[in-house]
Amino acid sequence: MIHSRILQKEADSPEFDNQFNYRSLIGKIAYLEKGTRPELAYACHQCSRFSSAPRKAHGEAIKRIGRYLLGTADKGMFIEPDLRKSFEVYVDADFCGNWNERYGHDPDTARSRHGYVITYAGVPIIHKSQLQTEIALSSTESEYTGLSYALREAIPLMNLLKEMKRHGIPVLDHRPKVHCRVFEDNTGALEMARVHKWRPRTKHLCTKLHHFRSYVTRKEITIHPIDTEDQPADILTKPLAVELFIKHRKWLIGW
Question: Which residue ranges form the domains of the chain, and what is each CATH number?
Answer without folding.
Answer: 1-76 (no CATH), 87-253 (3.30.420.10)
